[in-house]
């Protein structure tokens, strides 16, 4: 029951930087974000970093008449921070929590506590099934020495998996959010090449916003400008991506970003700029979309995809090596703590056998050392469990990537013309022979 | 490109009870399981509780010529224990880890460490897209006082979500695994009513196996028989569920279970019985399956589904109440630890201000008490974080259930004939008014 008239559809995305008591002007900014959403005639608004449910409920109340449907995705300790406001009924919602998301002991970065995830809501727009995804990936704190890169690559891998697997029945797919990745970064390429999602910034007919579509700019008073210097004062890490299907052609008529301070106020909406994309859904009469939908990726892009997955696999292997090393260190430290504890107990038992001998060391030091050994033992045990889980998740991702490469090889065999010799070196008989 | 000839497809499912050094006759049983899989002419074998990768690799090597394709899903500390062996190429694999899965401090139950999940593999059988799911849900240790019930209900909810959302493009859907739920349990009804999956035991034309299809029987020497007494010596907790689509009719020609000891051996394959189902895929010429696929549930079953979701929501609320209480207890204990630590430090500082005064209590007790307070503080902090995550996951599930009920209400409004007055009492204007 697809309508044949073209449909205009406006999507908004903003990382709201809503950490109560820590983010500057948090309360005032949520009022302004509410005002902005009220003014703009949007179909759907995708928000990230709405960490506090009270802020979501404030927006929900404020926007109730214009956006009667909303969903707040809950995950982790304070997350997921993802919220959707919609003019259209939300028929279904589903959340996928990323298997890796930083480390709990890196509390100053806080990502682990945010329970980063990808949320999906299902809308029906004049008979068209529109799948809307919103996500927020692990932050990048130091580009030169990015210890979280393997985690972000795994998140990008799981994001593309989630989108591909859950959108087979979609007429239109839209993803909005803060990917914390530049347009040419490995994760972005992985996501786009595998899902076939298009970038509204590069596809739009009209663009109005920050230079080169930057969404994280040095002029922003909330931004730490040091990290942005090498990039000419701005980076593009927030996106609205889209794709149609055999049933619907989707084009991006316009894309805009906010540009610094809110008019009439000394500060902007957030430490990120907001994105607004206007799409045109044009139902086709081809009706041949079903087989296209299933594969999710266009075969002439397969060699590029093979390279990207190979690159991602290498990054996951680097992460795996690091996680295994950390696990090894935790185990070694734990064993040292145990040996020390046993040694101490052995020394303490000496007076029991040799009556009259003085206690070898003072009671206070004995208890203090004992407590320390026990603390080391317990904390290394927990770290060992945590790193083992990280190792399992990375191994699992690598296995899935190997499986994908093997499946691509099969597809390429069936259509060898798209294959350049660079992409296929050896047959895939054993684990070791997969270089592909 | 769907073939028009009917296809026979044999599926096997077994919980292997493969805990090295703890499960009895573990190594011998994996040899026998390998022999069984070699003899049976299966298309796909779905294994659970293959906890050790070495056992998977042993089977992979042994079965390589008959089942050249396999996938081992990795999750958690020692899991997920899920493995798939297939005669057909596995084109893609995807894993969803359940958000709740017991407690890490309940180490004797071990479920948390297993990282329970649902795995999906994608096969192409003569042009048909067959989606195969394998899962293992949280165990039930005490049916009368089942403290894990809310977790299992959340798992069943996430399982049905995962299947519905990822199988829109499937011609055939098959789920095998150990659900740890009886056929009429809330989670089983939730899963079956929402996804439309059919039970091979009730749908099969021929059955050969244990009485009433039991897969966990008291005659099994590895089974703790006490728990099975109220159920006449056996329960059915392992399943092979299936559904076709508008493109393919699926029928279950036969289902069989193993019956106790392996012929010629004094022990069975596992503490569960294995299931083997023979399906017949008959491609239809209707080609009207697409819209049916999208909804995932048949509208005349909607009132029943509404009741089931309501029931599940109540159970999640019970779990939420319990998790909030536990979080409160953790917070209170942590505050007590903190107060004691501060008090101790305050007493210890007295000699600093009143020179000459004796140390109020011996050094040894001081350090011991300090260490104890610190340990209490740290462990309650971690428990607080853990319970907060549990609360978030339960709240998130409840929100999704409320959304689902609201969407059902809309569907029922559109076709009011299927609605009995029991199912719809009030309009859905506010959170409180949803009883539905």
UniProtKB/TrEMBL annotation, chains A, B:
Name of this chain's protein: Sphingomyelin phosphodiesterase 2
Enzyme Commission numbers on file: 3.1.4.12
UniProtKB keywords: Hydrolase, Lipid metabolism, Magnesium, Membrane, Metal-binding, Sphingolipid metabolism, Transmembrane, Transmembrane helix
Pathway: Lipid metabolism; sphingolipid metabolism; Sphingolipid metabolism
Compartments, record wording: Membrane
Family in the record: Belongs to the neutral sphingomyelinase family.
A Pfam family: Exo_endo_phos
One GO CC term, this protein: membrane
Enzyme class: hydrolase
Membrane-crossing residue ranges in chain numbering: 335-354, 366-387
Cofactor requirement: Mg(2+)
